[in-house]
Amino acid sequence: MMDLKFFRGKKIFITGHTGFKGSWLAYILYLNGAHIVGYSLKPENKHDNFYLFELDKKIRNYYYDIRDEKNLKKVITKFKPDIIFHLAAQSLVNYSYLKPKLTFLTNAVGTLNILEVCREIKNIRSIIIVTSDKCYKNYEKKTGYKEKDELGGEDPYSSSKTVSENIFYSYLKSFFKSKKNVGLVSVRSGNVIGGGDWSKDRIIPDLIKSIRTKKKFIVRNPNSSRPWMHVFDTINGYLTLSKKIYGNNKYNGSWNFGPNHSDIIVKNILLKILNILKIKKKIVIKKNNKIKETNSLNLNSKKSRKLLNWRPKLSLKQSLKITGEWYIDFLKNKKQILETSKKQIESFFKLH
After folding, report:
1. Predicted structure pTM score
2. Which residues fall within 8 angstroms of residue 243, CB to CB, at 6 or more apart?
3. pLDDT of res. 202
């Protein structure tokens, strides 16, 4: 398990820190004594973890668009971070069909801006570019995609992440190859679950919202399988890698972080989480033929297991259990959710 003491006193810059994964990452690092600057758009939902964790008061926040290179450079140059986590993105497949240009500019140009600014800053030691498992060209491969497999997405979101990876690779080979004391990596993880995700068109968030609003719960593809993994395991991968590459370019490149299982379909995920929540909910199946989605998606994470000694610590059952418990506590009394979140973090990093 990652020793979080490494991050105490480190200056860490996080883009997209107001999002689901970004807010958990920022809060975990805050609890362990890191000096954090967040760069992101303001969250729109008052129930977002960013506000529930009181990050608006606990860390330094800059509310700018990742496409704004001028302000991005100004903030990074002033802060002089040791480590950069780049998570800012338009992360929704369905929304990418509605706003393809915005998706490409945010995901591809955002990555370009980060890398362009970072290549001129001398004190940075680790740069982690977060992309997606959807950057791979999907052949419904059951054994999972390896880091060197072909890239290529059909929908605007997946394609934008492929472009981000190509930009990353170009900068890695063109500008960072000679920088011996800077680690630069891209990380690809699957369908991340956990408390505090309110994103639209995601299975568990949509289920919780339908319970809160007492509306129908609609599912597009109940038999699709995805690499479900808890946000803590994903972040543990990011943190482990950021330490491994700190001031060291020997591990530069792309890394997968995926679960042990590979064939859990959407319908079974829903049945399991409903059982945890002890709630009965009718599932309405309504396909959207205008949106192309893969039936099966899986990651091969042997590289991370072998070279980082990383592997998911939570089973799918455990992941769903603590996710369900988080939402149960939120629905009962959201004022207690900060304590619930803190206990879950402490339990994961202490017990494992």
Report:
1. 0.94
2. 2, 3, 6, 126
3. 85
